Amino acid sequence: MHSFDGGPFNANPSSWLCEGDDGALFGTTRHGGAENAGAIFRMNKDGSGFEIVHSFSATGSDGYEPLTGLGRGPDGALYGTTYYGGEFGLGTVFKLWPPQTPDISITVTNNRIDVNLSGVPNYRYQILRSIDLKGWAIVADITLPAGGAYVFHEAFAPGLAAFYKAVWIR
Questions:
Q1: Do 17 and 1 touch, CB atoms closer than 8 A?
Q2: Chain segment 7-40, per-residue pLDDT in tens
Q3: Closest Cα to residue 144, out of 168, 111, 115, 165?
Q4: What Cα–Cα distance (Å) separates residue 167 from each residue in 46, 49, 82, 104, 140?
Q5: DSSP 8-class letter at 102
């Protein structure tokens, strides 16, 4: 399904795989990642779509060198441990949920509002709109494509203020 090549982002898988809410498989590597301190990866069950979703850092608060796989909690989050790091340098327990908070930006061009959303590929998100920040209406319910980006288009109404936000749907 996937061969770890020792490249800068994947080396030495640690243990078992865990299925995420999106049906993909998540695992850890002891080495690799942006700083060679370990990583969390995600791939589809057919081996496609391999990607690093988190790189550990020897100076980060989340620890480094995970030596076990991930476990899925009742809240849908993925949990794991590291061998080193943390306050005393003796390892950490970490939580990965959601894997990435969605980023949203708004542009207005040619009487159109573009709501630009980026997040985790194959995860479901909703884009919501409010005119008073009290009530929110769902304007788009989408599963992000492989590139992790989506643009929602809406007609621009001059003189009408609107607020947008995106939320991850479990």
A1: no
A2: 666 778 888 899 987 788 999 999 888 888 999 9
A3: 168
A4: 28, 23, 29, 10, 11
A5: P
pLDDT in tens, 80-125: 999 999 889 899 999 887 655 678 999 988 888 999 998 877 788 9
Residues contacting residue 108 through CB under 8 Å, at least 6 positions apart: 114, 156
Q: In this structure, what DSSP letter does residue 42 have?
A: E
DSSP string, 22-75: TS-EEEEEEE-TTTTS-EEEEE-TTS-S-EEEEE--TTSTT-B---S--EE-TT
pTM metric for this prediction: 0.62
